[in-house]
Write a structure and sequence with these properties.
heterodimer, A: about 50% strand, B: about 120 residues, mainly beta
Chain lengths: ~120, ~120
């Protein structure tokens, strides 16, 4: 079955510390991969995406993610967290053929808290 | 600025009432989507539409209905048949292109429905 797993429900880091949010997926073929961020009571904003090519992708707000096919993972990283990064983060996977985004599968999210 | 407008932001409903959530986009996107978000559950797809006058059920369509009479608009009706309608509802759109693979979702700010 196709699925996305974000093992950490809630993570707390100190401001200035590094961050890694985990995402593992189960999919029948190489998928398209996404990370979205959601502030409380708001919609989701795209942080970055992987379609093909370089497996290390850069996104907005200083985030990056690495696609590791052998581990079926797409972990999100940031070298130094800012207080404004406190939010909920969602990993998502979708088909890499000409299909509808209706097939996008979201993880359950990881809530990030930042300590001053 | 182009984007997606959802209204109302907050909505209260008595049991047994139907309510309609509005979603309007000026991005000239072909595809539109409705997701339901519950705490700790991620996003679940309710309905999606790739073109005007056509739409498909998602994973949790029971108790919901949609219409797509105009490209810009994709309203969602939560009917009295939906047994647990209290949730955060997110509308999204994408520039669907069947031949170029997956595209990026743009989200609205959401509508929070509470059943009294």
């Amino acid at each position: 079955a196709q699925s996305v797993t974000q093992p950490d429900i809630h993570i707390t880091v100190s401001e200035g510390a590094s961050l890694e949010l985990r995402c593992n997926y189960s999919y029948g073929a190489t998928p398209y991969l996404f990370w979205y961020v959601q502030s409380p009571g708001q919609g989701l904003q795209l942080l970055l995406k992987y379609f093909s090519g370089d497996t290390l992708v850069q996104g907005i707000k200083g985030f990056e993610a690495e696609f590791k096919r052998s581990q079926s993972s797409f972990n999100l990283r940031k070298p130094s967290v800012h207080w404004s990064d406190a939010a909920e983060y969602f990993c998502a996977v979708g088909p890499n053929y000409g299909g509808s985004q209706g097939n996008l599968i979201f993880g359950k999210g990881t809530k990030l808290s930042v300590k001053p | 600025d182009g984007g997606i407008t959802q209204s109302p932001k907050y909505l209260f409903r008595k049991e047994g009432q139907n309510v309609t959530l509005s979603c309007e986009q000026n991005l000239n996107h072909d595809a539109m989507y409705w997701y339901r978000q519950d705490p700790g559950q991620g996003l679940r797809l309710i309905y999606y539409s790739q073109i005007v006058n056509d739409f498909q059920k998602g994973d949790i369509a029971e108790g919901y209905s949609v219409s797509r009479e105009k490209k810009e608009s994709f309203p969602l009706t939560v009917t009295s048949a939906q047994k647990n309608p209290t949730a955060f509802y997110l509308c999204a759109s994408s520039s669907e292109n069947r031949y170029s693979g997956a595209n990026v979702l743009t989200f609205g700010a959401g509508s929070r429905l509470t059943v009294l």
